[in-house]
Amino acid sequence: MSGTLLRLAAFTTDPAGGNPAGVWIGDVLPPAEEMKRIAADVGYSETAFLAPDGSGEPGRFRVRYFSPLAEVAFCGHATIAGGVALAERGEPANLALTTNDGVVDVAIDAGPDRRPRATLTSIEPWVREAPDALVDGVLTLLGWRLDELDPDLPPALAYAGVKHPIIAVRDLETLGRMSYDFDPMQRLMLDHDLTTIQLIWRESPTRFRARDPFAVGGVVEDPATGAAAAALGAYLRERGEITAPATFEIAQGVEMGRPSLLTVSIVPGEAGVRVSGNAVPIPA
Containing H/E element for 241? Predict the structure, then answer.
């Protein structure tokens, strides 16, 4: 069983920015243990594994995602990277990727600078009240106070393929001092079946700053989180902060020195949330 392993940076046009992703493309997916081994060798937060879904229809693929530690149900930045990689190999501009939880459509076009740009449409999301124990646990581990949170954007739990608590702060300075003890945060996230924690500051109605602890994936922080961006879009729509058609941007990875830009859109009559971004090869 053979495939091609690529490395791309997603949500950026600069290989030194964005979120690195592994993208493995082959005729048949390897066994799970082999995918986990490859992901660990790559060492990025996630690697996407793609193979034709067996339907015989062009542009339809089965995809599975692995961090260096375990399988992940959905990963936005690896989906963006995988979509761009498939398009550059001659696959159709409209792709259907079957994830563990449903089909994610990916459309490829050329952005204003003519670089390949991918847009994923999440599976149908949901938004719920965040459990007090979860919010209290996150704040305690971060060393943040309750009065530092943005009262206009109360904590919530949102899902758009995987689960993320959304916690908004009043001031960018609070976001800037994001730090935590790794093992306790990993245990808290495992206990609540979380993928990342979406920590945000609203800069304007159409622009947010974000930081995402990713202890369950074996890394302290994710520089660009497409799944959490989709969850945030669902949260803002649910609260009436945005009304379709609407688009906003998320700047992430700034504090890590890997600046990323994610564009989130909601479309009338469409249950899923769209997340768009570039992806570029990482030099060997």
Answer: none
